[in-house]
Amino acid sequence: MGNYNLTKLQKKVKKELDADRYHHTLGVKYTAAALAMCYGADLESAQVAGLLHDCAKCIPNDRKIRMCKERQIEITKVELDAPYLLHSKLGACLAQEKYGVEDPEILGAIQWHTTGRPNMTTLEKIIFTADYIEPHRFKAHNLAYVRKLAFHDLNLAVCQILEDTLHYLDSGQGEIDPMSRSAFRYYHNLFYETEDKGDSLTT
Length: 203
Ligand code: FE
Ligand code: FE
What we know:
The protein is an all-alpha fold. The protein has one domain (6-201): Hypothetical protein af1432. Helix content is 68%, strand content 0%. It has helices at residues 6-14, 19-39, 43-52, 61-70, 77-81, 86-97, 104-111, 122-133, 143-150, 154-173, 178-201. The structure holds fe (iii) ion (2 copies). Residues 24, 28, 53-54, 131 line the site of one fe (iii) ion.
């Protein structure tokens, strides 16, 4: 504890975000702290990751692409079609570069907060979940259920969020990063392995 100046980080990231994104960011910070209490994760890491998870979100898309190229960050086809996806990878990079974060756990939580990934660390799951359930969110249809679930079974909450997100994106609301599907298969198999192993292992 005590490696980071949270007040300073918060002031700095505020300058990079529009008002809505900043409020969302504070929501993620507090929700991540609450989840960290619940699951015995490091409170400071959770708050740092929460504060910085969207630090690259408000950069215009063409600049996001340019900044990724300058840093030799690989851009996939899906990311080129939906450059907002790049804010996670680029955000992890900027967290290190501009905010002095070296902890790979925190950087991983920022990097994977949009798509998730198979076998996430506790902090990765906390940020992924906090991003979805923080108090300013209101659109997702299962929110009340997922919010409750998040404090009972984090893996199941992650699984539900991935399922709902894929559903939403499948209905034509946005690009799907293949990593989201891999993540969903992984978490789905944790709970429903015996019932439909064959089905969920395809694609
Ligand atoms: Fe984000
Ligand atoms: Fe976010």
